[in-house]
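Entry 14. Structure prediction run on the chain below.
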Amino acid sequence: MLKPKKEKFFEGVLQRINKEFNVPLPIFYYDCTSLMAIFTASTRKLRSHLPSSDMHPVEIFPGICLIAVSAFEYRSCDIGPYNEFSIAAPITYKKKGVPGLTLMYQMLRNAPEAFIFFLPVTSELAMQGGVTLGGYPKFIADIEFRKDSNFITCNVSEHGTQILSLKGKRLNTSPGPVSKTVIYTMKNGNVLMANLYTNPLHFSQSFRRSSAQLTMSGDHKMCTFLRDVEISSKPLACQFSPMFESMLFDSKNTIDV
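Output returned:
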């Protein structure tokens, strides 16, 4: 499939209706905000959490890989407004990467690959559809955003108990390049993949370690996981997109690539 043209992002993309959930696939996201902080982690520790030996963490140095913590606010999309929080790791599939070079290659092509470990959402439809159709590790949580002129903060809680807080600086933005992210999930012991195309209408990136802050509370499974993989105390980079649009295609078996 050819990469969508940025100026006509959704044009020419055929959608079909999934009758079980009465939702169109691919799902179009029209008006969204995202905040992502990229941290380092232990390759050995993170690899132990990957469900397939064909999945390999992307390293910046031998023994040091990356993990991305992201918050999404979907104000308008085909399945209604909802919020989402993601903990994922850049990976390669069935081919080990080269420390530093693989990351650079994925960045230059705007074509990262990632495995998602946790994906709490605020929508029952998004949760049920994602789990059933694509094996996404979704569960219902309270995900709230606070914004002011300088910062955007996303707080995640469950049953009234605070879990995580991701805070990032609101940076000056400009249009960003269209990217294609290959997302890997597991369903019934099988590896699935899905393509996510993103058009950042407004985008910024900072490599200042003070540009974002992650705060963990308690012993929730997400916090326990992040501590176990030895997530760094400060991020390597922060990406902020106050307005983007995207298309999430339905999942398929990795053999059908």
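The helical segments are 43-47, 101-108, 124-134, 221-228.
Filed with the rest of this week's runs.
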